[in-house]
Design a protein that fits this description.
Length: 295
Amino acid sequence: MTLDQLKMLKLVAELGTLKAASDVLFKSQPAISQGLKQLETQLGVRLFSRQGYRLELTDQGRQIYLRTLRLLNEASEIQQLSAHLAKGVEASVTLAFEASFDLTRVLPMLEVTQGEFPDTSIILKQEYMSGAFEAVLQGAAELAIIASSHYFIEAEAIESIRLYRGALVSVAAPRLLTRHPNLIGVEELRNEYQIVVQDSGQATKGKEMGVQQGQRRWYVNDFSTKKTLILSGMGWGKLPDNLIADELTSGMLCRLQLNDVLNEIEVDYFAIKEKNKILGPVATRLWEHFLSLNQ
């Protein structure tokens, strides 16, 4: 069974005559007839009824025809992908991003890039704290979006583009605050649980970031879980401003006004890549889009 035979089956089934199929395939009618007979012999089924002027699919032939459409479509996709890869275009590009980053800011450019390079898979890899930075250095991602840090931005091996400024805001639910009607300092929250997202990288391993000594805490591995726990009144902590705008407006969450800690931390977000690394066409186009956001 060959692709040529399957193409003959498809065209004869759709056009109804050998002549019409021969005009499309640029093959003689006897060649197409012989090809179909060989296919029937190989499959052991009769594909066409030859009693009338038009060739009609048999019941078995119709089932084979439907599978043929799928096979020919997959063969076409393989040919397109091969041509795509032969041009040096990446099979996939990984963009790691810090989980507090507002992904909606780059969705339009991702959509444009995917439309231009439909055969390249764009993989979005959500990381926490130092995870996205390390993904680039370790070759697990071509590009990354990280939260600001002098350690990250000033690294000699990194080239960066500033994208925008956001904030991490200390919040709690009204249910928790009813237990502390005169709350003015973080010490008063020592017996409440601070909800802490763990670093997906290694830069802060063994270090406590923004947690007072002796503080009760719960560790989670994503902001969604952290937000759910804080909304329930089971703890407090900092959340990205873009994730809690509606809850702050509705009163489901309240900003903490503590006089002995930073209640809001401004965060600059940067696109980064490994310096002097040659990117493929798709990663290069994404990098160009990041540059346009900065301008």
